[in-house]
TrEMBL record:
One of the protein's GO biological processes: amino acid metabolic process
Documented EC number(s): 2.6.1.1
Key words, A-Z: Aminotransferase, Pyridoxal phosphate, Transferase
Keyword Ribosomal protein attributed: no
Species name: Xaviernesmea oryzae
Protein's name according to its UniProt entry: aspartate transaminase
Pfam family, one: Aminotran_1_2
Length: 394
């Protein structure tokens, strides 16, 4: 018999989508995979050199549980630059990816029975981690508001049990970028109603068409004492497999995270830490600029392919590297059909894989990643447009 707790976690929806792609490919179908939450790219030279040098030097020991002091110092400088506030080393914890930083945050902030507001559609791991900590996710539907929650809706969702809100901007899966006024409103509410802000800015580097990412602390410095900044190099340096993320938060939060990590994973991989440290010290921004150019091109290629859609509205795709489609117009009400059915249809008839919004708390959404080579993207979206245009609009 497994523990009751296991009932709380199904494997994540995005992992299920990847499994479906593999099954179709194993069955001999040629599939264009638009499910990836990562960017196709070479390694940054600074990352490669930093890792190779650490190996050459024979680096092999544990580091401080929450990361090398020098790396934490470099991260404190990075967060200071980004927020316009001064951050100290003891306000930074290095983690095994943003996922661990988020997990740690749930574990050290949430009491059983606490409520955590999570705007929907949401990245599938947010509610799962809140539940592990004994908390209750409270969702706000953002679909009618271009995927950005209205302050009135958030205000209505706040209760005496509200412990935190999870803000993810630029957003996975929707690509929405929260505007400064909304973030100021969230900060004001958090102060007035006394709750934490878990601020996931993993996609901060990727905004388009004049949109800008706003770190919430840079807009409202007073909110700093109740904000947990979550970030990682997984997306910004296309480094998903290396597992380096971090948290910037008040000292007592970091101390609790350090104790938690000391009993769970200990320090993140030491070679990866040295690699990121090298990049922070010596990176000149060229790699990031090239990654951005790559995504700008892919987004343009993708949007132009999607401009052929007749049955479904074109996505805005302000940030991140996802196109998010609302399929409501081709899902007959009362038919019980969801985006899952369209995802299966696309896989079977067009040989294209996307992630159903049901994984993100949105049964009418479809996420398509454009972090893949442009030629593949163009071919995949071309097939998708043809297939969706054959669906009757209702
Ligand atoms: N936050 C968001 C919004 C994400 O999309 C992801 C990865 N898909 C993560 C956190 C986790 O990132 P990491 O790989 O650094 O754990």
């Amino acid at each position: 018999m497994l523990a009751q707790r296991t009932g709380m976690f199904k494997s994540s929806g995005t992992a299920a989508a990847r499994a479906a792609v593999k099954a179709a490919a194993d069955a001999g179908k040629e599939i264009i995979d638009l499910t990836a939450g990562e960017i196709w790219s070479d390694l940054a030279p600074t990352i490669r050199d930093g890792a190779v040098e650490a190996i050459r030097k024979g680096v092999n020991r544990y580091t401080d549980t929450v990361g090398l002091a020098e790396l934490r110092e470099a991260l404190a400088r990075k967060v200071s630059r980004e927020t316009g506030e001064v951050w100290q080393t003891d306000e930074i914890a290095v983690t095994s990816g943003a996922k661990q930083a988020l997990f740690d945050a749930s574990m050290v902030l949430i009491n059983p029975g606490d409520q955590v507001i999570i705007p929907a559609p949401y990245w599938t791991t947010f509610p799962a981690q809140v539940q592990f900590a004994g908390g209750t996710p409270v969702h706000i539907d953002t679909r009618a508001n271009s995927y950005v929650p209205s302050i009135a809706d958030i205000e209505r969702a706040v209760t005496s049990l509200t412990c935190a809100i999870v803000i993810n901007t630029p957003n996975n899966p929707t690509g929405a970028v929260y505007d400064a006024d909304t973030l100021r409103g969230i900060a004001r509410l958090a102060i007035e109603r006394n709750f934490w802000i878990i601020f996931d800015e993993c996609y901060a580097d990727f905004t388009y068409d004049g949109q800008a990412h706003h770190p919430i602390v840079s807009l409202v410095p007073e909110v700093r004492s109740r904000t947990i900044i979550i970030n990682a190099f997984s997306k910004s340096l296309a480094l998903t497999g290396w597992r380096i993320g971090y948290m910037a938060a008040p000292k007592d939060v970091i101390s609790a995270v350090k104790a938690l990590q000391s009993h769970t994973t200990s320090n993140p991989n030491v070679i990866a830490q040295h690699a990121v440290l090298r990049h922070l010290k010596e990176g000149d921004g060229a790699y990031e600029a090239q990654l951005r150019r790559q995504l700008v091109t892919a987004r343009q290629v993708g949007l132009s392919a999607l401009s052929g859609l007749h049955t479904v509205a074109k996505p805005k795709a302000d940030g991140g590297f996802y196109f998010y489609l609302d399929l409501a117009d081709i899902l007959p009400a009362g038919s019980g059909k969801t985006a899952d059915d369209i995802v299966n249809l696309l896989l079977a008839e067009a040989g294209v894989a996307g992630v159903s919004g049901t994984a993100f708390g949105d049964p009418t959404g479809l996420r398509l990643s454009y972090g893949i080579p442009p030629a593949l993207l163009e071919a995949g979206l071309g097939r998708l447009v043809q297939c969706l245009n054959n669906q009757p609009r209702i």
